Amino acid sequence: MNAIEIENLTVWFGAGPDRAEAVRGAALSIPRGASFGLVGESGSGKSTILRAIAGLIPTWSGRIAVEGDALQGARRDRAFHRAVQMVFQDPYASLHPRHTVDRMLSEVLWLHGFRDIDARIERLLSDVGLGRGFRFRYPHQLSGGQRQRVAIARALAPEPRILLLDEPTSALDVSVQAEILNLLSDLRTERGLTYLMVSHDLGVVGHLCQTTAVMRTGEIVEILDVETMRRLQPRHPYTRQLLEASIGLNLGARGAPAPAV
Ligand SMILES: Nc1ncnc2c1ncn2[C@@H]1O[C@H](COP(=O)(O)OP(=O)(O)OP(=O)(O)O)[C@@H](O)[C@H]1O
């Protein structure tokens, strides 16, 4: 059974003459334990797909199934939130400014029925590379990378099987982006997690994802595996353009890399 299956997904905003389709006819499937990337330029619909899965957008048609269960509208039950968690781009905005790390993690753990909260908080902090010293800090007492680690710990608290990652490193300094990507990669291996990650950066996706869907103006134009990406042999001209932009090369007609002029 696939972790996530999407068929003929159309997502729109507004109604009547104001209706605008942000995603049109998208299809993808992500096996359990796989890491799948969604790339494309700004406004191409990447986050909209993630948000529709998460239940943050009610206006969609088609089929979204998580672990075999078809989702309806924007209603998601407790079981969904236990299985699927989301990490947002901006840890500054996603953490409550007046809550300590301890409170943020305790609340999620309590909500999901865990009662050995003390031990779990210590384990979560250590799993994301933060020591006990961080437990009673407020977000403003943390660096951007540390905040994103807290956001990841909070997402892991319910012991999810699937993480939806919306540009998880793009708000961070370049120097900490790789640290967070490595952390995410290690966590996936250790916990057998499935990732669906949005990024505008092919380098980031190539680092973390085995398979990538390329989006342009609301449509998936190509789904390619990491090997095809590394060999610089995409089928679609738009993917070629993205690859060229990301590595600063001019790809020859058959995809052979030629030096940029
Ligand atoms: N709440 C909303 N109401 C109306 N239109 C929206 C809303 N959210 C997104 N859109 C529109 O949907 C389209 C896709 O947006 P989306 O955020 O999915 O793009 P994206 O590929 O994730 O881009 P970015 O990398 O900039 O986040 C855009 O044209 C955007 O303006």
Task: Kindly summarize this structure in a few lines.
The protein is α/β, with parallel strands linked by helices. Helix content is 36%, strand content 27%.
What tags apply to this protein structure?
261 residues, Rossmann fold, 6-stranded mixed sheet, 4-stranded antiparallel sheet, 36% helix, binds adenosine-5'-triphosphate
Structural class determined from secondary elements: alpha/beta
Shape: globular
CATH topology: Rossmann fold
Examine the secondary-structure arrangement and name the CATH architecture.
Answer: 3-Layer(aba) Sandwich
Number of strands: 12
Order of helices and strands: EEEHEEHEHHHHEHEHEEHHEE
Give the names of the bound compounds.
adenosine-5'-triphosphate
Please list the strands of the largest sheet in the order they lie side by side.
6-7-8-3-9-10
End-to-end CA span: 47 Å
Main beta-sheet strand count, sense and barrel state: 6 strands, mixed
Beta-strand content: 25-35%
> Could you name the ranges where pLDDT drops below 50 across 5 or more consecutive residues?
none
- Superfamily (CATH H level) name: P-loop containing nucleotide triphosphate hydrolases
**Individual helix count:** 10
Radius of gyration: 19 Å
What is the count of distinct domains? Answer: 1
Question: Level of helix content?
Answer: 25-40%
User: Which CATH class applies here?
Assistant: Alpha Beta
Protein name: Peptide/nickel transport system ATP-binding protein
GO molecular function, one term: ATP hydrolysis activity
Domain ABC transporter: 4-242
Organism: Oceanicella actignis
